[in-house]
Amino acid sequence: MTDTTTENQTVEVTPVHLADVLLDREFNPAGDPILSRATPDQLLEACGLIPHFFCDACANCEIENPEGFTLDNIADAMDRIYQYGGFRYGWKGTVDQKGIYHAADSEDPPLSPIMRFRYRNHAADWHPEQNETEAKLYQPRVIECMVYRYAVVAIRERNDGPVRIGRFD
């Protein structure tokens, strides 16, 4: 919060990031008992800049090219923003319906998501009068981003389709 003083008044300004406005947030979505001891602020803090990378990547993909609002393009955009790999060096494993990450190596324990973020593209809102072809192109889509311990990140299109898993430490 920043205080700005003028001659007659003090105005408090709170910085707001696009992620604070555009992303739906779900704290401890798998109901992990260890994570349930943390406050929402602590869980959000544990996610660091990852929600911002995700939101910026989704917004950029949607604005630059609605046809390009795909999982691969969003993952590539997150890599460009992060600049140190992320999905470029993808991790093997699966993410179940609850969002729990199961590593390819059976010796690694499953990881519950700290938080789940959802971005809904708004292309359909911008094109209210659509023909059949445009309706397919501009249909609303929801992309999920799950953040885990150890800066592991998974993105997917709402519980179906492929999953991209990487690390954003």
List the SSEs and their pairings.
Blueprint: E1 2-5, E2 10-13, H1 18-22, E3 24-27, H2 40-46, H3 50-64, H4 71-82, E4 93-95, E5 101-103, E6 115-120, H5 123-126, H6 132-137, E7 142-147, E8 152-157, E9 160-167
Antiparallel strand pairs: 1-2, 3-6, 4-5, 6-7, 7-8, 8-9
Concise overview:
With 169 residues, this protein is an alpha+beta fold. The chain contains 6 helices and 9 strands.
Run of helices and strands = EEHEHHHEEEHHEEE
Overall tally of structural domains: 1
Radius of gyration (Å): 18 Å
Helix content: 25-40%
Low-confidence stretches are none
List keywords for this structure.
169 residues, alpha+beta
Q: What does it look like?
A:
The chain is α+β, with helices and mostly antiparallel strands and 169 residues long. The protein has one domain. It is 29% helix and 26% strand. The protein has 6 helices and 9 strands. The strands form 3 sheets. The protein has a 5-stranded antiparallel beta sheet. The chain has a two-stranded antiparallel ribbon with strand order 1-2. A hairpin with a 4-residue loop joins strand 1 (2-5) and strand 2 (10-13). Helix 3 crosses helix 4 (71-82). The longest helix is centred in the middle third of the chain and has 15 residues, at 50-64. The two termini are 27 Å apart. The model has no long low-confidence stretch (mean pLDDT 87).
